[in-house]
Each structure stands twice: as C-alpha cells, then as structure tokens.
Amino acid sequence: MSEAHFPARETRHLLVVDDDDRIRDLLKEYLARAGFRVTAAADAARARRLMELLDFDLVVLDVMMPGEDGVSFTRTLRDRSGDAGRTPVLMLTARGEATDRIAGLAAGADDYLPKPFEPQELLLRIESILRRAGGRPSSGKRLAMGACAFDPDRGELTREGQVVRLTEAEVSLLRQLAASAHAAVDRLDLARESADATGRAVDVQVTRLRRKIEPDPKNPRYLQTVRGVGYRLAPDL
Description:
Elements: E1 13-17, H1 21-33, E2 37-41, H2 44-53, E3 58-62, H3 70-78, E4 89-93, H4 98-107, E5 111-114, H5 119-134, E6 143-145, E7 148-151, E8 156-159, E9 162-164, H6 168-178, E10 185-186, H7 187-191, H8 200-213, E11 223-226, E12 230-233
Parallel strand pairs: 1-2, 1-3, 3-4, 4-5
Antiparallel strand pairs: 6-7, 7-8, 8-9, 10-12, 11-12
C-alpha cells in the first residue's frame, strides 16, 4: 500500500499505550516503519512515568485497559500544567458508540478511532492531529473576553493573567473562531478540523471552552451559539 509523504515524521515522537501485547507491537512496528519515533507502554501507569521523563508529540491510547482506563488517563493528563498537559491524544477502542466517543472527547481527546481500523486511516488521523497541533496561524492581535484573553499566535488563553490549560483541539477551535471574530462560523466548517465531521466534537469542545471562558457558561456572552448556523466568538470591542 502506498502512503502519502508527510515531512519530518522522524522528528515526531509518539507514545503508544495498549495493554494488548500483539496490538501494541504491531502499532509500534507500523508507525516506526512509517517514519515516526515510537515508544510503547502497556498501561496508564507506565505511560505516565514515560511522560515524566520524555516529551511526546502525540499519544495513541487504548481506552479499555485494566486499572486506569484511557478516558481517566486523558482527563488526568489534561490537568497537567505546561506543554505536557496539551499533548494531543488519539483514542483507540473497540467501543464505537456515540456516547463513548463523546466521553473520550469530553475528557480532552483530540480524535477517536474505533477498532478495527485501517492502518492508513490511523496514519492520516495522526497526521491531521499533528498538523492542527503544529499550525500557528497569525491573527495579529490578542482578543479580550472579560477576565480572559486569547492570543491566537501563541495559542494561549489566560484568565486574570494566569494561563488556562487548553487541549490542542480547543486551541484549534478558538483560532478558527478568532479568525472570524464577531461573525458566525458554520458548525460543519469548524467540524472539518475536528475529530468528528458531524459536529459533535465541536459541540463538546465549545462546552468545555465555555466553562473556561464564560462567567456563566449556561448563558454565554463570548462564545455564542448562532441557531441554524454554528458558533460566533464575540470578544470585547
């Protein structure tokens, strides 16, 4: 099977976490042959120790594991400060129900791939996440939202001067909305850069962002819903 070429794979360090020895070894071998640097762990505890020692560009994470599961691990990861807490996560699971996908995305995962999957699809999803994580479009200005401010160039949200932790998917969504500040952005246009083309991932990310930005998340002032269209970011003038 031929593969599209993506530059600088050899500079990308992936962490594969799966309790199934066979699947873990197959993933490690396939991704290494695709050009990535790959480290593997059999469970969440070992993955956590590795992440304390090494920097990773992305975690490929099985959800159903003995002990701490992938959703719990992702939630804990997102509580970490600094770049480590924003490490992109691609979840792998045999459970493909919508409620399971939403649970993973709500925990902070960037994408969700049900098993069984085609190896080429895994590669394309990894590359899509890495492009989103690596992109740094310039907007030229910092957007104020009450006690919060968002710097699109740095992908940084602050509240009263303190950095608020965001996932890479949340940064990507805020950047898309910031690029069209005060204008409605179609929900499906936003979904093209998300983990779910139906728009459900966007809805989950908007809910999470409102909790971080809005004084009253149930009555949003800054991250507004535009009925029948999508969402609008309305920073202070």
